[in-house]
Amino acid sequence: MRLDKAISSQGTWSRSDVRKLVRAGRVSVDGAVCKDPGTAVDPAVQNIAVDGEALQYKEHIYLVLNKPKGYISATEDRTQKTVLDLVPPELFRPGLFPAGRLDADTTGFVLLTDDGEFAHRILSPRSHIYKTYLATLERPLSEEAAEQLRGGMTLADGTVCLPAEVRILPGTQAEVRICEGRYHEVKRMFAAAGNRVRDLHRTKMGGLALPDDLAEGDCRELLADELNLVLMSSEF
Ligand code: URA
User: Fold this and answer.
1) Is the CB of 103 inside a 6 Å radius of any atom of ligand 1?
2) How many CB atoms lie within 10 A of CB 129?
3) 3-state secondary structure string, 4-28?
4) Averaged pLDDT score across all residues of the chain
């Protein structure tokens, strides 16, 4: 990999900033100043430093965001705020995107990454990685309606939803988990069963719950064992 790409991929500096830094003699590779931005490096094994500070190279980044209402799950939009607007500069990287969409008015767990393969893996229904939601409904969920969701529903437009796992909670709440992510899927399933979702909050991806200490709007890097939990199946 080129030296300028290795450094700029980590997000702090743009490619053109990096070229200037390198040409100014502020970058070293294994202790020796390197002034050619095109030098081939292996950032996984070589020690690259900018102004004497070692680059903590990571091939990919994985973030958990506690999404508030009012942000769309996209990387850019001309009028609306996106989930990327909530990522602090020190965690930002080129190529970062939300792995899966939450509606603008849905809150909770959003995983952001620049690793397309990982995103595909967690989103493909074939991986059986469940996404768990807490739904606040207009009315208490009846056992019959819950059974409809559990059986796999066909929506009015012909969309066939895979069976969902559903737990009726006190009051007007229900917990539901699905391993696919069709457009407005949870809301449309409850609507087809004669109810309405007032609030939707994603509490879990795979076996990893949204961390309790992550305030709404906050975002942090996932630890390696948390990332493994995302990929693990868990009991409902
Ligand atoms: N299902 C929905 O209807 N909305 C979401 O945001 C996520 C799942």
Assistant:
1) yes
2) 20
3) HHHHHCCCCCCHHHHHHHHHCCCEE
4) 96
